[in-house]
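Working notes for the structural subgroup meeting. M.R. asked for a predicted model of this chain before we commit to crystallization trials. I am recording the input and output together here so anyone reviewing the notebook later can reproduce the run.

Input as submitted:
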Amino acid sequence: MYVAVKGGEKAIENAHAWLAEERRGSPDVAELSIAQIREQLSLAVNRVMAEGSLFDPDLAALAIKQARGDLIEAIFLIRAYRTTLPRFGYTNPVETAEMACDRRISATFKDAPGGQVLGPTFDYTHRLLDFKLAADGEVPAAPEGAARREPTPHITEFLKGEDIIQDEPASEDTPGDLTRQPLEFPSSRPLRLQSLTRGDEGFVLGMAYSTQRGYARNHAFVGELRIGKVAVEMVIPELGFAIDLGEIELTECETVNQFQGSKTEPPQFTRGYGLVFGQSERKAISMALVDRALRWEELGEDYLGAAAQDEEFVLSHADNIQATGFLEHIKLPHYVDFQSELELVRKLRREAEERITPKEAAE
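Returned structure, recorded in C-alpha cell form:
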C-alpha cells in the first residue's frame, strides 16, 4: 500500500532544483553540448537508442545529458517520449545482406568470402589509459576508404550451400509488436528477439556468459559480426510501392553452434541471432547466445534446467525499465505496510515471551 505524501511540494521543487545544479556541475567548466555527446559518447548513445526502442541519436544524447549519464534513466526518458509519437505503419524488413559495412568479421573463416573489415574496435587495443586524451590531443584521421560500401553476403549462406547449417526460411507472418502488446508465454522467436534487443545489456550479457560456462551446453562460434548502415523502406498505400525513408546503423551477429542432432533434427550447425541499433557488439553477441539457448525446445534438445533456457525467467527479468521501476518503488512511503509488519513482530515476540516458563527464564 502506498501512502500519499502531502505538504511536500516545496521539498520536491527544491530537490528538482538541486538535481539541475548537480547535473550542470561546476559553472567554471564548459557545458556539454548535445552534439558533443552524440559524436563523442556514441556507444552510450547507441545503447540508449537500442534499449529505448527509438533510433534518434540527438534525442538519445539529450536523454543522457538530462539523466546525468545514468543510461537506464536515459532509456526510461526515451521510452516515455516514444509513447507520445504517432504510429504511421510498419517498414519492410531491412536487408542486412545489403549493409554498407564499417566492420565485418568472422571467427569461423579466416578467408571469409568478401573479406574481413576490422573497423572501429577496441579488440586490438592494450586497454591502457591514454593520457593524450586528457591533454585534448588531436586524433589522427582514419585512412579513406576503410569502410566496405558494397553489399556483402552473409557467411552463413555459404554453409547453407553445403546443407550443414539449419535452414531458416522466411516467414510470411507479420511479427508481433512488443511495444503495442504485452509479452505472453510461450512467445514466438520474433518477440523473444524484440525483448532481448530492448533488454538490459548487462543482464543479457550475464545470461550469455552463463551459457558459455556450461549452463546450457551451448558452444558457439561467431559466424559473422557486422556493423553498418542499411536503408529503411516503407510501402505507402497511396503510392503502391516502397519509398526510402533513410538509413540506420545496425549491429548484426549470427552465431554458429554445435548440434548433435535430435529425434526431429539431423546433426548440423544451428544459429543464434542478434540485431541491435548502432554499434553494440557486446549486446548483439549476447543476444545471439541467449537466443540459441532459448531454442532448445524447437530443436528437440533436452532441458538442462539452465536459467538461459527458461524463457519466462529470461524475458521477464531482462527489461531494465521494468526492473528499475519495481526496485525503486520501495523508496516510496510504505508507512502503513511497515506499521503492520512492526505490530506483527511485536505480537510474535510477546507471545514467545509468554510461552517461556519461569524455569526457562532463570536458565
